[in-house]
Amino acid sequence: MGIFTSLFGGNKEGNAKEENELPWIALTDVAQLNEIAEKSQTKTQIIFKHSTSCGISRMVLKMFKGSYSLTKEQVDLYYLDLLQYRNVSNETGYKFQVMHQSPQLLVIKNGIAVGHQSHGAINELNLEQYI
Question: Could you tell me the pTM of the whole model?
């Protein structure tokens, strides 16, 4: 097994770092959506909706992680596991008037979605323009 671990990676501490490299805030409760809308009055809020069972969603998330360059001081970055928190995912669409897609990225400013994309277009979105 050692050769496979060295070639393909394993469950090492280095891989755990990859999971935590972005300043994610877990979005797990519908009440957080009101907090996000309120906080967006003074600081841009970003929500990444991810389907943990979808290969495309995993690929887009990996690409997003590789290109993300904003800091905690610039934006708050939320991660929503839409399979585990389906009710939060549904309410996100209603609250911010964006049709559900997966994966999906929403940019919230002044209480509304000022930008959103899904699938591969997520990584084409220029997030700096919303700061």
Answer: 0.83
